[in-house]
Amino acid sequence: MAIISEMQDETRQEESVPPMDPMEVEKPKKESLKPTEPIVPNKGNGLDFEKYSWTQNLQEVTVTIPVPSGTKSRSVTCEIKKNRLRVSLKGQDPIIDGEFFNAVKPDDCFWNIEDQKVVSVLLTKQDQMQWWKCCVKGEPEIDTQKVEPESSKLSDLDPETRSSVEKMMFDQRQKQMGLPTSDEIEKEDMMKKFMSQHPEMNFSNAKFN
């Protein structure tokens, strides 16, 4: 009887042990999305993608799209609007369909097929004093500070445009080196000239913006 009593006591102790809480597994935290950093442009100051590539100068953007060899122009649909480009092959999803980084001049844009294997689209920029960060909005952007203009083509520009381009290129290099831009240099020279013309004035405590 004593043995049975001891077994009953052990059974009661086992029943009185509270159940263990299941271990809580910490859920992995979602990584915060990091903003996409600008990309160094290709040799044509644009970018290369799997389905197409684009290059640019200050006046134009050229989009190059490889297509199956033997493709005829009637198999290509190319719609160029002021703010949008859509290129597709007959019976297929669009290769490009999106909004331009900046507006173009549709009447001065055209496309053709080279050797029946490449569709080339020439886009004339409306603002011919700005580098595009991308061809179509939503795609990766280039670092326009790394753009390398073709100096050899500066001679083709009219004097006013050439002067503006050279000024922009100079200011871009100065900013990269942490040096004053042409406007800042001009203001500084004007102030030095004014100070030399008025030696009687005390500029020691003056603050210039």
Automatic annotation (TrEMBL):
Q: For the CS domain, which residue ranges apply? A: 47-136
Protein's UniProt keywords contain Cytoplasm:
yes
Where it sits in the cell: the answer is: Cytoplasmic granule
Name the source's superkingdom: Eukaryota
Q: Which of UniProt's keywords are assigned here? A: Cytoplasm
Q: Which GO terms describe its biological process?
A: response to stress
- Protein name per the record: CS domain-containing protein
Originating species: Brassica campestris (Field mustard)
